[in-house]
Amino acid sequence: MSVLLSILKKWNDGTRRPEVRMKRIIHIGLLCLAWPMVAAIGMAAENSSVESAGQTRSAYTLSEWVAVLEKDNPEIASARAAEDSARAAAWIRGSLNPPSAGVEYKQAPLASFPNPANDAREVDYFLQQDIMFPGKLIAMGGAESHRADSLKWEADLKLRQLTRDLKAMYFELYEVERKREYNQRNRELVQQVQSVTERQYGLGRGSQSDIFRVQTEYSTLQSQNLILEQAQKIALAEFNVLVNRAPDSPVQVLPPALPKQAPRYALAGLTALAEKNHPELKAAQADVEMKQAEHAASIWAFFPDFMVKGMYMDMRGGADNAWALMGAMTIPFAPWALPQTVAAVSQTSAQVRQSRADYQTRSNMLHVQLQRISAQLEVSYKILVLNRDTILRQAEQTWQTTLSAYQTNQRDFLSLLDAYRTLWMARENYVMAEKNYWTSLADLELAVGCSLETIEAEFNKKEVKP
Q1: Cα 93 to Cα 140: distance, rounded to the nearest angstrom
Q2: What is the mean pLDDT of residues 279-297?
Q3: Residue 69 dihedral angles phi and psi, to the nearest 5°
């Protein structure tokens, strides 16, 4: 539209001749007619290109998937909208009600019904404003503002929880894909074993039951592959739902690099970081402040509210016109109204105590959760290293030596089958250890309330501090 306006201005300047101006007016009219169509075509092309890019792209990094989650997940959008609604409500609760204006016709004869405007002997025009005691408005608006703060931190907590779920599903997808890869490799191994077994049987060194056992192992692997395929489809659908995409949209898993050394996070440092950053604690603290503001508003209820009314009286019956001013106030300390006000103060005071107790409960639970996750992270890393550096290597070496020994008739078929199954389990346990370690890191991020990069930065800052 700005481009169109600049073109119109340029065409309108620089000439005073009527015939030239007429031609330009015709050109401008045609441009105005064509412009909406051109703009609509351009927007449609842009939207289709964006949609196609969103549908085809699958190779996001994990951090990019988190950004997509924050942008597109409807639960997060709903939580943010609830916060915006509470922000608007704070202005509503902290503002005076609008004034009222009206007109009153007096002493109109019955014959003038239903239009008393012409025959009324007096017409009163008034303007009225209800004024709440100023402290009440401030307290009520502050309570709603603190409620908006609580909803903001609850939205951040929802984002943290969904981020943890997203990462857990991402690592589950990785686990299933790796297991399917190992399943393929295991089927190739079984086919190799079958060839060796058939050759041994041909040389009279084995039995036909060994061949049947190998075939049974191969069928078992095929069955497991079907189960893994089903699990992959389910995990893919759950992952895509989190990022608000079609359930069958492809996702290319790009797992993070495994650490070279164990993470060193002191429990005291994690606890201090969680108390400072965790959105659940901040939401609980905002809830305490909201209850305190509501308690203050209930105390202000002992003070009266006011009403001011101004009136102009048009005396059509012959008397002089006049004006009137009226003021009124509520009497909250009346004997029949005072118990209600006192009960409201007691109620809000109890709610303040309850919210403080809830905050302390959440803080205690968070400390326990941090201790559990810290221990879980340490153990999961040790299991990962043990599987990667010891168990998997030993299983691969055992398989190679047992296969060579079986081919030279130095080991029996059951030993070969046992070595194969040990290698199979070692591979799957290693993949599971990878997933458990990464999931533990995601649990740590949720428990502390900030990203792993922030945790690393905080602990590095403490290490370099003199």
Answers
A1: 6
A2: 91
A3: -60, -50
In order of 89, 94, 141, 366, the CA distances from 86 in angstroms are: 5, 12, 10, 27
Integer distance in angstroms from the first to the last C-alpha of the chain? 59
Distance CA 240, CA 159 (A): 16
CA 79/CA 77 separation, integer angstroms:
5
Q: In what order do the strands lie in the sheet with 100-106?
A: 100-106, 122-131, 306-315, 322-329
Fold entry, domain 62-464: Outer membrane efflux proteins (OEP) (1.20.1600)
HSE at residue 352, side-chain half, CA atoms within 13 A, is 17
The C-alpha atoms of residue 277 and residue 457 are separated, in whole angstroms, by 14
Closest CA to 344 of 74, 140, 71: 140
- CA dist 261 to 257, 258, 371, Å? 12, 9, 20
Residue 37: band (very low, low, confident or very high) from pLDDT cuts 50, 70, 90: low
Q: Where are the chain's structural domains?
A: 2-56, 62-464
Map tokens 């799957």 to a residue.
Answer: 428
CA 144 to chain centre: 22
Quickly count: other Cβ atoms within 10 Å of residue 171's Cβ. Answer: 23
pLDDT at 354: 94
- pLDDT tens, 301-359? 888 899 999 999 888 867 788 999 999 998 888 888 888 889 989 999 999 999 999 99
